[in-house]
Design brief:
By secondary structure, the chain is α/β, with parallel strands linked by helices. It folds into three domains: about 25-135 and about 270-375 and about 450-470, Rossmann fold (3-Layer(aba) Sandwich), CATH 3.40.50.300; about 150-265, no CATH class; about 380-435, no CATH class. About 40% of the residues lie in helices and about 15% in strands. It is built from 16 helices and ten strands. The strands form two sheets. It has a seven-stranded mixed beta sheet. The protein has a three-stranded antiparallel beta sheet with strand order 8-9-10, with no helix packed on it. A hairpin with a 2-residue loop joins strand 8 and strand 9. The protein is globular and about 70 Å long. Residues about 425 have low confidence and may be disordered. The structure holds guanosine-5'-diphosphate (GDP). Guanosine-5'-diphosphate binds near residues 36, 40, 373, 374 and 377.
């Protein structure tokens, strides 16, 4: 049955491929990043700015006025929820602007662009339509990929070892205490299973709150529509006897079910079809959280690159039809910094990317690192401070609604300082100032034809899709 399904899908894919070659080209743009990295805000602002194009000078097709119209269309995939673009745009640009609801699961949106081809002086070729299919999915789901190669035993051993690491031990204590009380060799008892899974999920949540990431299973924190299902009700266990009918036996079985029913379908049905990918990274948040969080970010970036270029013998390379051509790592929320610090942020992202590329032994796709703000919530200012001028950003605070001008602290000018794990004294970067910076979206007074204000969103668009609009 699987084989028949596969064959049928193959035929359908081939037909779709043919249609695309003969008719309108389609770009499938994946947008991912860990929770709160800014995916929802990015997609909403990108689509709004592609529809208006008044603030996209670095996107060549827009600057040359070769995009004549851009409009939303029903997406081709009937089984994937639609990205709630209109709701999110209303939240951001209504009379009382507020941040939209964040990504919880996969969603999709099709934006169609009518593009005048080539040089419009010679008028080569008529206008054509390029479909941009944007696929939004939680970055947590990508972190599941390494699970595919692991047994329940291997995975449990690794997670338990990591939980004893001094950086994590404090967060792991309640879960490990719950584990102490359990007897995995005893007959499965569902409330007990749920208690262990909940304690483990709580540990993952605590790590995320501390700025640490990089831990599978991704659906434990981002369950989508699977919350509460048996495939998500398991947890790592120490080595021991696994009699049939026991909790230990059942958890090992559920771990395999998770791989088969959750991880594999996501990679096969969605991930494998992406052409271009943007990975959003809350780099400022990680720098603020301290060196372990930055180290975690570096590891996560390495894992992500490996997912996009798996080794020739992995199961993933067998299902990857076409390979992703461009990957952008974008540090988001750059509007928290005065532009005098943007170069330092870009340099940090570039250093992290170079390091991840080296470790992943990455070849093939084009990559770029960029510092952006999908929505610019601040304006810049210089304040007199102890006889010098202090560059600050001013915005409306989310909690109080009051205006505030803040200096988040200074990024290190030498990015290599950040790459040394556990460097002492690192907490001096982005200190007090940064922790109070929770700006609301700006109240907009937009001219007709202008999308929401941003920083370098047009550069991001040029790298991701510019070549396909020529
Ligand atoms: P998601 O979980 O990846 O979908 O993240 P969201 O797009 O919902 O963004 C999470 C939060 O980050 C938002 O609620 C905002 O507080 C903040 N944020 C995202 N993008 C920006 C930005 O460009 N500028 C600023 N100042 N804040 C942003």
């Amino acid at each position: 049955n699987d084989i028949a399904d596969g064959l049928l899908r193959g035929v359908e894919d081939a037909q779709a491929g043919l249609r695309e070659a003969l008719f309108d080209p389609v770009i499938r743009l994946g947008v991912t990043g860990l929770s709160r990295s800014g995916k929802t805000v990015f997609i909403t602002s990108l689509v709004a700015n592609l529809m208006e194009r008044g603030r996209m000078p670095q996107l060549r097709a827009a600057a040359d006025e070769r995009i004549t119209t851009a409009y939303l269309q029903p997406q081709p995939d009937d089984a994937v929820p639609r990205f709630a673009f209109e709701d999110h745009l209303t939240a951001l640009t209504g009379p009382e602007p507020h941040w939209p609801e964040s990504t919880r699961a996969i969603s999709q949106l099709r934006l169609s662009l009518k593009v005048r081809r080539g040089n419009w002086v010679t008028g080569l070729g008529g206008p054509r339509t390029v479909h941009l299919d944007i696929v939004d999915y939680p970055g947590e789901w990508l972190l599941d990929l390494p699970l595919m190669e692991k047994s329940f035993r291997q995975w449990s051993d690794e997670v338990l070892a990591a939980a004893r690491d001094p950086v994590r031990a404090e967060h792991a204590a309640p879960w490990l205490a719950a584990l102490e009380e359990a007897d995995p060799a005893r007959k499965l008892d569902e409330p007990e299973a749920q208690r262990l899974a909940a304690a483990f999920t709580d540990y993952l949540g605590r790590m995320r709150a501390a700025g640490l990431s990089g831990f599978a299973p991704g659906r434990f924190l981002m369950p989508g529509d699977l919350a509460g299902s048996p495939a998500l009700t398991f947890a790592p266990l120490p080595a021991g006897a696994t009699p049939s009918g026991s909790l230990a036996k059942e958890f090992a079985r559920r771990f395999e079910a998770y791989k088969r029913l959750v991880v594999k379908p996501f990679f096969r049905d969605h991930f494998a079809r992406i052409d271009r990918q943007v990975v959003l990274v809350d780099a400022l948040g990680a720098i603020h959280a301290g060196p372990p969080a930055v180290e975690d970010l570096r590891v996560a970036m390495t894992n992500i690159l490996e997912a996009f270029r798996p080794g020739p013998n992995s199961w993933l390379s067998a299902i990857l039809g076409k390979r992703v051509e461009r990957i952008l790592f974008a540090a988001t929320k750059a509007d928290h910094l005065h532009h005098s610090q943007h170069a330092a942020l870009t340099a940090i992202m570039e250093a992290l990317l170079a390091d991840a590329k080296r470790r992943a032994d990455f070849k093939g796709a084009q990559t770029q690192a960029l510092a952006i703000a999908a929505i610019r919530a601040t304006v810049e200012q210089e304040l007199a401070h102890q006889g010098a001028k202090l560059p600050v950003v001013r915005g409306r605070l989310e909690d109080s609604g009051k205006e505030a001008a803040l200096h988040p602290g200074d990024l290190p000018s030498d990015p290599s300082a950040l790459l040394v794990p556990a460097r002492k004294g690192a907490a001096e970067w982005l200190d007090e100032g940064y922790s109070v910076m929770r700006f609301a979206p700006p109240v907009l007074s937009r001219a007709p034809g202008e999308g929401p204000p941003h920083i370098r969103l047009d550069r991001a668009a040029e790298f991701l899709i510019g070549d396909r609009l020529l």
